[in-house]
Amino acid sequence: TKRLPRAIVVGVKKGGTRAVLEFIRVHPEVRALGTEPHFFDRNYHRGLEWYRSLMPRTLDSQITVEKTPSYFVTKEAPRRIFNMSRDTKLIVVVRNPVTRAISDYTQTLSKKPDIPTFEGLTFRNRSLGLVDTSWNAIRIGMYAVHLESWLQYFPLSQIHFVSGEKLITDPAGEMGKVQDFLGIKRVITDKHFYFNKTKGFPCLKKSESSGLPRCLGKSKGRTHVQIDPEVIEQLRDFYRPYNIKFYETVGQDFRWE
C-alpha cells in the first residue's frame, strides 16, 4: 500500500540531500520517492491524499521516505508536517554555509548565465560588509534561524543532522548514523561505496534498481565559481555567530570555523 512518509529529508538545498536519498534507498527496508513532491511548501492545497498517491508502495516492514530540501526554510512546513504526524522523523543535511552558498550560486548560474556576480548579490554594502540576508543563497545557510521554527513543533531527538562534508569523506559512517536514527539495521556499509576521483565524491557500487554502479547526475560535483578570498572571509565572519548558535543548539560541532 501507499503510505505517508515516516521520514522526510527536509533540507538543505545543495547540502547533499540527493546523495542521502540515493544511498538510503539501497536499504531493503526503505522505499523512497525519487522526485521532490514540494507538498509542504508549494502543493499543500492539494491535500494529504494527493501526497499519499505519489508515494511508492511499501510492505508493512518498510519505511517511506521523501526529500524536498526547501522545506527547511519554509515557515509553514514544520506545523504542516506536525499536523500530518507528530512522529515524523526529520533529516537535515547541512554543509559549510559559505561553500553551500557558492554551490547554490553555481547551480543558478548554469541555468541563468546573465545573473549578477556572486559578490554583487552577497552584499547590500560591501565596503561596510553588510550582507544581504534577503538573498536566498545566503539566507538558507543561517541554519540556527530556520531551526527555531522546527523546534517549536519537534524535539531535537526527532531531527537528525547529516554532515555534508562527512558524507563525502566517510559515506558509510554518516549513513550508519542515518540507519540508526531510522531504527533500521545497518545494512549500508563501506562495501556499498567507491570513491569517484573525477567527480570528487563517493558513488554507489550498486544502485537500487539495476545492480550497476551509480553516481549522482551530471549536475552534481560541478566546479564552483572562483570567488575572491576576501569575500569568502567576510562571509565566514558573517556566518560564525549563526554557526556557533547552531552547534550549541544541536549539540554537534560541524567544524566549519
UniProtKB/TrEMBL annotation:
Major site of localization recorded for this protein: membrane
Keywords: Disulfide bond, Glycoprotein, Golgi apparatus, Membrane, Signal-anchor, Transferase, Transmembrane, Transmembrane helix
EC number: 2.8.2.-
Membrane topology qualifier: Single-pass type II membrane protein
Disulfide cysteine pairs (residue numbers): 203-215
Gene Ontology terms, MF aspect: [heparan sulfate]-glucosamine 3-sulfotransferase activity
InterPro entries: NST/OST (IPR037359), P-loop_NTPase (IPR027417), Sulfotransferase_dom (IPR000863)
SUPFAM superfamilies reported for this sequence: P-loop containing nucleoside triphosphate hydrolases (SSF52540)
CC per GO annotation: Golgi membrane
Cell compartment(s), UniProt: Endomembrane system; Golgi apparatus membrane
Transmembrane helix found in the keyword field: yes
Keyword flag Transmembrane helix: yes
Active site: 14 (for sulfotransferase activity)
Binding site for 3'-phosphoadenylyl sulfate: 14-18, 95, 103, 220-224
Sulfotransferase domain mapped to chain residues: 5-240
Family stated for the protein in its record: Belongs to the sulfotransferase 1 family.
PANTHER family the record matches: HEPARAN SULFATE GLUCOSAMINE 3-O-SULFOTRANSFERASE 2, HEPARAN SULFATE SULFOTRANSFERASE
Protein name as catalogued: Sulfotransferase
Source organism of this protein record: Notiomystis cincta
